[in-house]
Amino acid sequence: MKNTYLIRGGLQGRERLRILSQVMQSSGVALLRRAGVGAGASCLDVGCGGGDLACDFARLVGAEGQVVGVDIDETKLSLAQSEALSLGFRNIEFRHLDITKAVVGEKFDFVHARFLLTHLPDPAAALARMAAALKPGGVLVLQDIDMEGQFSWPASPAMDRYKDLYTRVARCRGGDPFIGRRLPALLSAAGLHSIAFNVVQPAATSGDVKLIAPITMENIAGSLINEGLASATEVEQIIAELYASAHDPNMLMSVPRIVEAWAQA
Ligand SMILES: C[S@@+](CC[C@H](N)C(=O)[O-])C[C@H]1O[C@@H](n2cnc3c(N)ncnc32)[C@H](O)[C@@H]1O
């Protein structure tokens, strides 16, 4: 079966996620606290990638809590497991699980997914499987992108073309690059209640925030070329221009608008 995930996986994919997680860490931890994650809780992170957020969960729940991270990428899972152990976490377990096909056996106080539903052709079905993993009264927490919101100032043709190509290739693979705005409606349709949401959007003139666009462009290059959406030459040119913007202190660059939404079972 064709792999629909459009961003390069494995080691390079993990390194992109490390930068993304650093950019998102303060808002992500604040979200988990706001959703009620605390000492002793059991938590499931679906599409956990390199396990950065699973480690944030583990810090919040402490030694009495339990964290399970699931993903389809075996390389990222094994890197995540060894990094978590080297950081001293004994209460995180990483497992291979495709949320489009399988349910997780046990029940959790919190189930979370960041930047996962945007890639799935049937996000509602995945959400139903995630909701099924909640204990009664448990909380489902989502964070996902709305590509329309990503911006630079001054305007940049390379940024505009990157957004256009990202949107096209995501749609080609059956995803929704604007899914952020649909998260509250998806939670409601999944039968959850007490729905809350918030919007965050890191933007900066320097630092890692500005690397997200060029690194993502590098990691979708293969998919863009395979789908015939751009030539290798054009892709290289856009990557070079995005890196030049990232190193230009007069250029403000953002990540996509990110919607956080959470609700109770
Ligand atoms: C953009 S990454 C985000 C990773 C992590 N949530 C984070 O924010 O750092 C999306 C992750 O979802 C995983 N993924 C994609 N499709 C999946 C599926 N059907 N089931 C489980 N994980 C999946 C990918 O392998 C990737 O690690």
What can you see in these coordinates?
The protein is of the alpha/beta class and 265 residues long. The protein has a single domain, classed as 3-Layer(aba) Sandwich (Rossmann fold), CATH 3.40.50. 42% of the residues lie in helices and 22% in strands. The protein has 8 helices and 10 strands. The protein has helices at residues 10-34, 52-61, 74-86, 123-132, 157-172, 183-189, 212-226, 232-246, and strands at 42-46, 66-71, 92-96, 108-114, 134-146, 152-153, 193-200, 203-204, 252-254, 257-264. The strands form 2 sheets. A 7-stranded mixed beta sheet has the order 3-2-1-4-5-10-7. Strands 6-9-8 form a 3-stranded antiparallel beta sheet, with no helix packed on it. α4 (123-132) links the parallel β4 (108-114) and β5. α1 (10-34) packs parallel to α2 and α5 (157-172) crosses α8. The chain is globular and about 50 Å long. The model has no long low-confidence stretch (mean pLDDT 95). The chain binds S-adenosylmethionine. S-adenosylmethionine binds at residues 5, 7, 9, 17, 20-21, 47-49, 52-53, 70-73, 76, 98-100, 114-116, 119.
- Quantity of strands, as a count: 10
Structural class: alpha/beta
Per the CATH scheme, the topology name is Rossmann fold
Tell me, rounded to a whole number, the average pLDDT.
95
End-to-end distance: 33 Å
Total individual domains: 1
Q: From the alpha-carbon coordinates, what is the Rg to the nearest angstrom?
A: 18 Å
Strand residues, percent: 15-25%
**In the CATH hierarchy, what is the class?**
Alpha Beta
